[in-house]
Amino acid sequence: MELDSFNKEIWDYIESYSSPEDPLLEELNRFTHLRVIHPRMLSGKVQGKFLEFISRMIRPERILEIGSYTGYSAICLAKGLQSDGKLITIEISDEIAGIAKKYILKAGMEEKIELICGDALSIIPDLNEEFDLIFIDAEKEQYCRYFELVFPKVKKGGYIIADNTLWDGKVVFEKEFKDSASIALREFNKMIINHPGLENIIIPLRDGLTLIRKLSDLK
Questions:
Q1: The pTM is what?
Q2: Is 213 exposed, middle or buried (0-12, 13-18, 19+ CB in 10 A)?
Q3: What's the whole-number average pLDDT of the chain?
């Protein structure tokens, strides 16, 4: 579903009246749109600033990101880390990971951000960390599995953010959209709302962001 002209005008207004990207993120945004496949996967100015704000409010010691893409969201999230904090980001594509590493270095965040290249489903079980904040933005068909793997590693009172949970509105129209991603995201949304140890809200920012807070010590 494409944005109609009315929504496009609203989005342009939101971008115009939101704080600008810093020069490095603007460069990364432009590079991604010119040189990388599927540039829509980039968080971009407004969502990136939102992630930065969330991180600055939480002041996390440890962040996990599933799906680095070209590194834009990792750089935004890392801005809110405590002085001794660390962000681990996982990217399955060697080529894309190379771009992310380049811009993490340019941002001067190589000591804050650890990029691991590989399959998150294999990597997450071996992470001996507890996280204050987790950002899920990778294979949509695996969202439920990602959640099952990371939930025990989230501190009580910690947060998970899941991207693309509205999926261009396709999650609403079950009869019309039966592709694997739409089905998987519907299942994820149902799992979250029915989970006894969580509270959550879906924010209609871009393609939908679900903010989730862990309420208990349930593993």
A1: 0.94
A2: middle
A3: 95
User: Which residue range(s) make up the domain with 115?
Assistant: 5-214
pLDDT digits (tens, 9 = 90+) for 106-131: 999 999 999 999 999 999 999 999 99
CA distance 200 to 162: 11
- Nearest C-alpha neighbor of 41 from the set 162, 164, 197, 202: 164
What is the average pLDDT across 213-217? 88
We report the CATH number of the domain holding residue 160 as 3.40.50.150
Q: Has residue 160 been placed in a domain? A: yes
Q: What is the DSSP string of 56-120?
A: HHH--SEEEEE--TTSHHHHHHHTTS-TT-EEEEEES-HHHHHHHHHHHHHTT-TTTEEEEES-H
Number of independent structural domains in the chain: 1
* C-alpha gyration radius of the chain: 17
CA proximity to 72, closest of 29, 37, 102: 29
Decide the pairing of beta strands 209-214 and 198-203: antiparallel
| 22 touches 29 (CB < 8 A) | no
In-domain check, residue 219: no
The span from the CA of 22 to the CA of 28, in Å, is 10
